[in-house]
Each structure stands twice: as structure tokens, then as C-alpha cells.
Design brief:
About 5% of the residues have low confidence. About 70% of the residues lie in helices and about 0% in strands. The longest helix is centred in the C-terminal third of the chain and has 30 residues. It has about 190 residues and is mainly alpha-helical. Helix 7 crosses helix 9. This is RNA polymerase sigma factor. Keywords: Sigma factor, Transcription, Transcription regulation. Belongs to the sigma-70 factor family. ECF subfamily.
Length: about 190
């Protein structure tokens, strides 16, 4: 059975959500769940943490929806809520985690033919292998477009640290690409 509000626009749903309409909230949740989960999975360690982050983000959305400005688009606003929720949940662990710098044996330089065969899904899997702070800063800077100064404010670290962590993340990603894909490439040719 089709949801009675499924034909409503985002703006119409927002207006109804402002009036605490539960059916409108349910429809907004269904409409943006996959979007929120996609963002959350990049920041969280596992699917359970991501789901918790998504649910927290929706709670914040519904709590603050009355302050949402009508002329704004909801997706960028909600994306910000999801990212902030994920960071809030991870921030506790970042303070207690130790960052290990794993050094690899002599590496062969990345081959452009190898890189051209890697898809986005492969990169996301490699991101999971980075230390948590590196993955978090890589996501914020490279994927979500935050500046180092904004990252510094969000994570309460110096902007220079953000730059260093991003540089280390990129170095480790290069090494991971070589380690994961170079051998397979060598066998294929």
C-alpha cells in the first residue's frame, strides 16, 4: 500500500513535520534514510554505529525542523546534521584512540593502469583500513569539502594537524592501493 504522503514534495513534508505530523516524519525518514546511511557509513566503524548515527540525525532533524528556512534545500542541511552526528559519536573514541603509523616495506610506485581499474567501492573499502582519525579527516576534506579550518573547529584540533592527518591518509591510501591491487595486476598481465 502506497504511503499517503509519498506524492508530497520535500517542502510540503517539512511543513507537515513542523506541525509534528508523525506520518510526514515517517515519509521524510523513508525518503532520506538511504541518503543519510550512505553518508554515515563513511564516518562510522560499522553498520550498527552508522544506523545509530542516522537515527540520531533524524531525531535532531525533527527537533530542529521548525528552524529550517523555507528557501533552503533540505538535503545539504540534513547532510550537515548527519555528518555532525557521526562526528559527535566518533569524537569520544578519537580522544582515546591511538594512531598507529604502519610502515610498509619498500613499495613499487602506483601504476596508472592499476589506478584506472579501481572503482569507488574499492576506495571506500580501503578507507576502512585507515586509522580512524585519518579516515575521518579524509572524508571531511576530500569527500564532503570541508576546509582544514572547519575540520579543526569540528574536531577541536589545530588546522595544521588536519593537514598532517590528511597527508598521512593519502600516503597510506597510496600504499594500500599498491598492496591490494599491484599483486593482482601483476598476476593478470
Amino acid at each position: 500500500m502506497k504511503h499517503p504522503y509519498s506524492s508530497l514534495s520535500d517542502q510540503e513534508l517539512i511543513i507537515k513535520c513542523r506541525k509534528d505530523d508523525v506520518k510526514a516524519q515517517e515519509m521524510l525518514y523513508k525518503r532520506f534514510y538511504a541518503y543519510a546511511m550512505g553518508i554515515s557509513l563513511r564516518y562510522c566503524i560499522n553498520r550498527d554505529d552508522a544506523l545509530e548515527t542516522v537515527n540520531d540525525a533524524f531525531m535532531k532533524l525533527f527537533k530542529t525542523i521548525k528552524t529550517f528556512e523555507n528557501e533552503r534545500l533540505i538535503k545539504p542541511w540534513f547532510r550537515q546534521i548527519v555528518v555532525n552526528s557521526a562526528i559527535d559519536s566518533r569524537r569520544k573514541n578519537l580522544k582515546h584512540s591511538t594512531v598507529l603509523d604502519i610502515e610498509y616495506a619498500e613499495e613499487k610506485p602506483a601504476n596508472n593502469q592499476i589506478i584506472s581499474k579501481i572503482n569507488a567501492q574499492d576506495i571506500l573499502k580501503l578507507l576502512d583500513e585507515l586509522p580512524e582519525i585519518h579516515r575521518l579527516i579524509f572524508n571531511l576534506y576530500e569527500i564532503d569539502g570541508y576546509s582544514h579550518e572547519e575540520i579543526a573547529d569540528i574536531l577541536d584540533i589545530p588546522s595544521s594537524s588536519s593537514r598532517v592527518y590528511l597527508s598521512r591518509a593519502k600516503d597510506k591510501l597510496r600504499k594500500l592501493v599498491n598492496n591490494h591491487f599491484y599483486l593482482n595486476y601483476e598476476r593478470a598481465i
